[in-house]
Automatic annotation (TrEMBL):
CDD domains: SDR_c (cd05233). The lineage of its organism: Bacteria, Pseudomonadati, Pseudomonadota, Betaproteobacteria, Burkholderiales. SMART domains: PKS_KR. PANTHER family: 3-OXOACYL-[ACYL-CARRIER-PROTEIN] REDUCTASE, CHLOROPLASTIC (PTHR42760:SF40), SHORT-CHAIN DEHYDROGENASES/REDUCTASES FAMILY MEMBER (PTHR42760). Belongs to the short-chain dehydrogenases/reductases (SDR) family. This is SDR family oxidoreductase. It comes from the Bacteria. It comes from Roseateles subflavus.
Amino acid sequence: MKKIVLITGASRGIGAATAVRCAREGYDVALNYHRDAAAAAQVAAQVRALGAQATLLQADVADTAQVLGLFERLDAQLGPQARLTGLVNNAGIVAPRARVEEMSPERWQRVFAVNVMGTMLCAREAVRRMSRAHGGSGGAIVNLSSRAALLGSPGLYVDYAASKAAVETFTVGLAREIATEGVRVNGVRPGIIETDIHADSGMGDELAAAAAGIPMQRLGRAEEVAEAIVWLLSDAASYTTGALLDVTGGR
Ligand code: NAD
């Protein structure tokens, strides 16, 4: 049966690289995007050029109704013969660097809404479709954490770091909760990867200097994170669940 993976936040960065890598691996890909329809369409075109099917699904993953609508549209497009086999909870945001005294509750709420609630909402819908307890035939979920979950990101974005720590605990808890139901749940913990997210945090200019603090003396590439994600999705990782895999250049 054809493998189908849903990737959230797939319009750019690690999500886009994962979509292309999954297509190379023979998956059909459902690409969620939030605002950038044109960029998502370009990623879909790359997926199709590799011979895979691409479905575009607009939704804010932090919004319960929009996530339910996304999965309903996906069900309708797949039809009765095809089943979702993988979910990559990639969508994530970081707010501009700040100290805690300068952070508003609204900022914390939005960061947690996208990074934590978005991950939970999509995982919940995927489990409802993939778990053998719900009549599904199994699958795999990969959640994007961050090395920040362990480092705390002082002076930068402790809210983001705390949200990724929540993602990690959720990953381990869900993995163990459904370990006998054919669905593996793992996380990837990227270090500093060259993507546009750093422009959002105001860290863009400091990236080159940050490389000096990494044992491999360079930043990572989105494609290198995609490799880890695709392995965790695959049957090659059949005995791996509840794991957090560092992709950090040794950091
Ligand atoms: P990015 O900003 O390039 O991509 C994030 C994607 O998520 C974008 O396509 C964006 O549109 C989407 N998105 C944001 N809010 C959304 C929402 N509410 N609903 C749906 N989509 C939404 O960043 P990236 O570097 O590719 O990051 C991907 C993931 O990897 C994130 O979870 C991020 O926290 C994590 N990560 C990145 C790094 C890094 O250094 N780049 C390090 C550690 C972890």
